[in-house]
Each structure stands twice: as structure tokens, then as C-alpha cells.
Amino acid sequence: MTTDFSPRLFERDSDIRALGEGLLACALPRAAWTHEAHLAACLWLLTERPDIDIDAEIAGLIRRFNESVGGVNDDHNGYHDSITRAYVAGVRRFLSETAETALMARVNALLLSDVGRRDWPLRFYSRERLFSVAARRGFVEPDLAPLPRIVIASLRSQ
């Protein structure tokens, strides 16, 4: 696991909402779709978009966005199902444990947490398994430890 870790934090709720809306509308510049943006959009979707079933729709949302900016979703590039679903599980766990309630505070706390780390999925997966074509194309169960399983009726903002 890497030791140097300094994510770009957000300064306004509106920046996070703009990322999420930009993802949905396929209107973000490709350069804006960073690791931090992925996690911010995931938390935003889970807490502020009850109309979107993230488990059913996240793959299509990200694939569509990638294609809209000229990206390719194939065996080596673009959408990675197992990494995405690992982070969705991690963000859910984070939301079940955090005391933060404001959007920006939640996202920044997430980014500074263990779940926010780029190498966080490697706590559950070997590199070989996580970076396999099968894990990119579809969800593959971890081989080192089970992902967090959090069942919460509602993570939505109040």
C-alpha cells in the first residue's frame, strides 16, 4: 500500500453536485473525472439521488460518460466493475459510520479516510485478481477478505 496520500479536497457543495450532475449528463471534461471525482459522485448519488439505483445503474452511467469523452470501455481501459463496486461498498460503510452530515464535509472526510485511498481495494483483492479482465468486465469476489456489506434503508440527506 502506498504511504503518500493527499487527495484534492472540495471547497463547496456546489462543486460536488456539479460533478454528479455532469456525470449524469455526460457533460464533464475528461480531466475532471479524477479519483476524487469518482468518490464524490458516488457519495452524492447515494445520499442525494434516491431516484437512481446505484447498484443497477452505476456501470451504465460510468460507461456512458467514458464514451462521451472519447474513452473506450474494453478489456484494458475505461469502466472497471470490481473496483467500482468495491468503492460503492466502501462509501456505504463510510456513510454508516461518519458523523458528518453536510455534503462537502462528508466527501472530504471520505477522501481523507482509508476508503478514499487509491489502493483501498487491494485490502480485499490481490493485484492479479483485481486487475484481471474478468474483474474489469464484471464483479469478481475478492480473494483476500470480504468487502464490507452494509445494508441501510436510507443514506439520504435529511
Largest sheet: none
Average residue-wise pLDDT: 93
Q: How many individual domains?
A: 1
Helix content: 40-55%
Which structural class best describes the helix and strand composition? mainly alpha
Shape: globular
Q: In words, what does this structure look like?
A:
This protein is an all-alpha fold. It has one domain (13-137). Helix content is 49%, strand content 0%. The protein is built from 7 helices and no strands. The longest helix has 17 residues, at 81-97. The radius of gyration is 15 Å and the shape is globular. It starts with 12 loop residues before the first helix and ends in a 21-residue tail after the last helix.
Helices and strands in order, then pairings?
Elements: H1 13-25, H2 35-48, H3 54-68, H4 81-97, H5 103-112, H6 127-130, H7 133-137
Helix pairs in contact: 1-2, 2-4, 2-5, 3-4
List keywords for this structure.
158 residues, mainly alpha, 7 helices, disordered C terminus
Question: Could you write a compact summary of the structure shown?
Answer:
It is built from 7 helices and no strands. The protein is globular.
